[in-house]
Backbone:
């Protein structure tokens, strides 16, 4: 598994009693974020490109890039993007993307804490709803999202890939 040198080779060796800290990502988190994302897509990213985009994203108040850290190690992340809507009462909504918790620390409440924080942000921004899509291969994801109040029915998500990983 790909990990930068600053992460322990066995993330599960981090003390379980240490509560994760949820906070906005910083540029210093990007190498660990790249390694964490490799667990999700099994591909090494481009750190220079990531830094370039991160700088641009940080200037856009519609983005919320959150990380979960245990003892300074990034163990989870997600992105929330506020979208403006011209439909109905013209209330914004939030799209949640790239939700990941390192596989060694799942089922410990880290993903829940990330999702609760992004929901808090969406509420402060006046969002009418949050939405996300999850790969059909993520077998445990539906139960997790349902436990947070997300509904899959009567909705159906669609996604068209324009550029493959």
Residues:
């Amino acid at each position: 598994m790909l990990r930068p040198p600053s992460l322990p080779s066995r993330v599960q060796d981090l003390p379980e009693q240490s509560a994760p800290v949820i906070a906005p990502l910083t540029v210093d988190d990007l190498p660990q974020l790249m390694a964490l994302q490799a667990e999700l897509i099994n591909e090494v990213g481009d750190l220079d490109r990531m830094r370039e985009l991160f700088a641009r994203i940080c200037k856009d108040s519609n983005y919320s890039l959150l990380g979960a850290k245990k003892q300074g190690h990034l163990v989870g992340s997600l992105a929330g993007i506020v979208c403006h809507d011209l439909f109905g009462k013209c209330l914004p909504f939030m799209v949640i993307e790239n939700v990941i918790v390192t596989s060694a620390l799942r089922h410990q409440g880290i993903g829940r804490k990330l999702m609760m924080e992004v929901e808090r942000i969406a509420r402060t921004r006046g969002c009418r709803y949050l939405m996300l899509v999850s790969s059909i291969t993520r077998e445990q994801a539906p139960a997790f999202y349902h436990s947070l109040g997300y509904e899959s029915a009567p909705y159906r998500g669609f996604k068209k890939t324009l550029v493959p990983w």
Observations:
- The chain has a mean pLDDT of 88.
- The domain at 20-147 is CATH 3.40.630.30 (Aminopeptidase).
- Strands lie at 21-24, 63-70, 73-83, 93-101, 130-132.
- The chain has four helices and five strands.
